[in-house]
Amino acid sequence: MNSIENKPRGSYEGKCKEMMDAVLGAVHESMIVLSADLRVVAANSGFVRATGVASDEIVGRAFEDVIANRWSMPGLVEMLQDVVKSGVPVDNLELTHRARGAEFRTLRINARRIAHPDGGEPFVVLCMDDVTVARRLDRVRDDLLATVSHDLRTPLSALQGFTRVLIEQHDLSPEKTREYLRIIHDEAQYLNLLVERFVDHVV
Length: 203
Hints:
Elements: H1 12-26, E1 30-34, E2 40-43, H2 45-51, H3 63-67, H4 74-86, E3 90-98, E4 104-114, E5 123-130, H5 132-168, H6 174-202
Antiparallel strand pairs: 1-2, 1-5, 3-4, 4-5
């Protein structure tokens, strides 16, 4: 449930709470609002799912305690403290960590300090997006491109070499000409096979 605490909806603060709940509900990534001392003010359903902590047990707790059983990111709390003090935002910072009892995960972090509507201590808005699968696909794509580019050089070199011989040497015997044409044909078929494999992997 994306809520903070029930306030009179006609009050200015109540309207701020409604607006904050609406923003949290519209974001699919894990999003959380923290007080200046890094206690949870509000959290969206994405954050609740990611941490595995019941929504009614999150608000008011220290952020470090909420994520302790799920994520091991000791530098994250210090980073958020710096955001509170300096006001310098964190943009698209990727942190890799080992989730408790699971594999390594990569989270993309964005954090902003926002002013309190009544002039009190500021809040910190933290958004965390799990980009583990995307980064894994990036590595697979890079490996595939490296492999394909390496494998393409051999048939391309053969095609260039033998076509150059056929163009420049006019005294080749019919047997040699047929041999070179057969090699060109075979390398072209192999090149076509590489392209088909590449397309299958990409698609």
